[in-house]
Amino acid sequence: MATLPLYLQDQTEEEIMQRMLNRVPLDIDKSEGSFIWDAQAPVAFVLAEAAIWAQQVLQRGFASTAFGEYLDLRVAEHGVIRRAAVAAHGIVRFTGTPGKAIPSGVGLATPADEISGESSIEYVTTAAVTLDGEGVGEAPIRAVEAGRTGNVPAGVITVMSTPISGIMAVANPEATTGGTDIESDESLLQRFYARVRNQGTSGNKAQYIQWAGEVPGVGAVQVQPLWQGPGTVGIYLLDADKRAANAEIVDAAQSYIDPTMDGQGEGMAPAGPIVTVMAAEEIPINISVQLTLASGASLAEVKTQIDNGVTAYLKQLAFADPLVRVTRIAAVLLDIPPIIDYANLTVNGASDTNIEINFGQVAVLGTVDVHE
């Protein structure tokens, strides 16, 4: 916080008490425990507390030091609203009696883990499905509770909250995606600064980025003017995990910016241009490497650390740096303590070629083949 104004400096209880005692005549007993001391001590305490409150008022009045609902109030003065949490979406595959009809609204869940105390994550189907002649059918699902906890790997949604006769098994063939927690103070403040410091006007590029960034679940935006010639704008989206935005996020952004896509200006976009909102194209980064590990190190545990390290590196690049550098991936390997050395490192089949990521694309971790 900036330097406090003079009237809030040197306002501790001890300093206030001393200034009060200094104003008492010298011929009056003002030693600790005297009547004067005991009468002034509570006043000094309350005045010091009031000075702390005044400092808090200053903090809540400026965006850089505000927090929570006070930051909400501050940024709302400029039309910036905290993004709400978003529920994860995905699909599940039912297996059972051919021709069996499964209604919308069926409850599903991941198994609870009694050992770790981890509770189930609940989902619900959002459309009806009828199993085909082989007894298989897929239905879209949505997490019951919004937030990142709804993003789970493939194959873990295996519990039917209410069993249905004729259904023998259920599982999600792909990971659920798009679940996003309510926007953090840090992210909200960054969007606020982007709004007030980089004014978007008249449908310029900055304004399209602002509009897309206001949609819950959006984690990053790229805007391509003249996407398919004059009068067209292409917008590419990532989610909060810096992966390609799912269909729900894309549809929400499209409806917000240009719902009719006919140049009539029915959304936030001005009349004239036709705006197309799209998910970014994911480019897998496949890694193969031979490792020399420290004694007692587990190859599986090291692979997990490589996955986490490379994923974190790729997130830094998303819509910011178009080059995936082999040397940076090598650095991730050498930063993992159990790895003594490595050899035969290849990235997407090449040992010394950086991977270029084009506009509208995002690099994501693909396969990781590690061996000794």
UniProtKB/TrEMBL annotation:
Short name of one Pfam family: Baseplate_J_C
Domain Baseplate J-like C-terminal: 285-370
Signal peptide positions (record): none
Domain called Baseplate J-like central: residue spans: 201-279
Domain Baseplate protein J-like barrel stretches: 92-179
PANTHER family named among the record's database cross-references: PHAGE-LIKE ELEMENT PBSX PROTEIN XKDT, PROTEIN JAYE-RELATED
Family, per entry: Belongs to the Mu gp47/PBSX XkdT family.
Protein name as annotated: Phage-like element PBSX protein XkdT
Organism encoding this protein: Paenibacillus antibioticophila
Taxonomic lineage of the native organism: Bacteria, Bacillati, Bacillota, Bacilli, Bacillales
Gene name of this polypeptide: xkdT
